[in-house]
Specification:
By secondary structure, the protein is α/β, with parallel strands linked by helices. It has 2 domains: 167 residues, Rossmann fold (3-Layer(aba) Sandwich), CATH 3.40.50.300; 67 residues, no CATH class. 34% of the residues lie in helices and 25% in strands. The structure holds adenosine-5'-diphosphate and magnesium ion.
Amino acid sequence: MSALLELTGVIGGYSPELPILHGIDMQVDAGEFVTIIGPNGAGKSTAMKAIAGLVRITEGRVTLDGRDITNHPTEEMAEAGMAFVPQTANIFTTLTIDENLKLGAHTLPRKQAAQRIAQAYERFPDLVKFRDSAARSLSGGQRQMLAVARALLCAPRLVMLDEPSAGLAPNIVQDVFVMLRRLADDGVAVLMVEQNAKGAMAVSDRTYVLAEGENRISGTSQEMLNNPEVKAIYLGNAGRKSA
Ligand SMILES: Nc1ncnc2c1ncn2[C@@H]1O[C@H](COP(=O)(O)OP(=O)(O)O)[C@@H](O)[C@H]1O
Ligand SMILES: [Mg+2]
């Protein structure tokens, strides 16, 4: 059986002369929670953007559920079953929580949109009391919840997140990770880029290390937590805060 998401020899970048990704191979199974770690500038965000159709792939391919989605327009990704929560600008801060959700569901038939929004409030009960408040009044953690709630409106089989814990207080980081773990346990695959390597590996199933646009090490998150190389490079400064 093939993986839900599969990257095979993906080469690409912001201009054809200067590839950033030098042949990435990666797999995410249905309902699996996968973390990507790696140094700054490794190409983690670029890899996510390439999967989402925002960065040009010049060689290799990306499949979702066996269907080739290489370089497909980003607008088609929701229909294909994928949602992407970028690192910044993932919600509209001047709009209310309800407006954010309605906008996220605007392509759905009216009844389905209402159902999915109701489900979003069920999954994230903390958001209910802020329904009619501007999203800027939310805390950092609540904003991430709203961003994920929006991503789920298209009922994706895979949610990709770029550094969801960036800028959050340590106790809130754990809430976000637990929320993503629950999502994966409910059958929605999660692919997450994280700076907080230790926390991310503690909640996820598998981890890839990316460096200089290439896969370096990968394995179960448990194995990776105990891998001497990973320990030396990525777990030595676990107390460091993200910018
Ligand atoms: N919009 C862009 N245009 C051109 N180069 C970029 C752009 N964004 C990132 N890069 C370059 O791509 C490389 C990888 O960056 P990025 O994927 O953001 O790394 P990471 O997310 O792992 O920190 C870096 O050398 C960076 O300078
Ligand atoms: Mg990045």
